[in-house]
Design brief:
Number of strands: 10
Strand content: 35-45%
Structural class: mainly beta
Shape: globular
Helix content: 10-25%
Strand order of the largest sheet: 1-3-4-5-6-7-8-10
Order of helices and strands: HHEEEEEEEEEE
Radius of gyration: 20 Å
Distance between the termini: 55 Å
Length: 141
């Protein structure tokens, strides 16, 4: 009888443990992304609306750990836990990624052809930017 009780308690314990199921939206950005171009938010007349970055920037998202690392020219410059939210206060509901360690966020979306992950200029959580750059990242295989 004790053995049966121990087995039942073990099963209940194992099934009650929290599993770490990745957020489906984080799964979509999971992996490594390389910055390939920057879109100027409000270019001056006659100036380019896009530019090629003068540095190498890699973003790495781990959906199961809800973590993020940014490297510039091979050096880690930012690490954070991340979460996905919908900005309910915007006039158009938009997906945003929140960088918990710095309390900042970026709107994000994907382009179709070619497929880019696009991040809007980051801002403090709660702030609204009127204008900002767009950062286009390609998935690294």
């Amino acid at each position: 009888m004790k053995t049966l009780l121990m087995h039942i308690l073990s099963i209940l314990f194992v099934t009650s443990c929290e599993t770490n199921i990745p957020d489906p939206q984080l799964n979509e950005i999971n992996g490594r992304w390389k910055l390939v171009k920057i879109g100027a938010g409000f270019p001056a007349p006659g100036s380019p609306s896009e530019k090629v970055p003068e540095y190498e920037e890699i973003l790495e998202f781990n959906a199961s750990k809800k973590s993020f690392t940014r490297t510039k020219d091979g050096k880690v410059v930012e690490r954070s836990t991340v979460s996905m939210r919908v900005d309910e206060n915007a006039s158009i509901k938009r997906d945003m990624i929140v960088f918990e360690n710095t309390k900042t966020y970026s709107y994000l979306w994907f382009t179709e052809t070619p497929k880019y992950l696009v991040l809007y200029q980051s801002a403090p959580v709660g702030a609204r930017l009127a204008d900002g750059n767009l950062f286009f990242y390609e998935k690294i295989k």
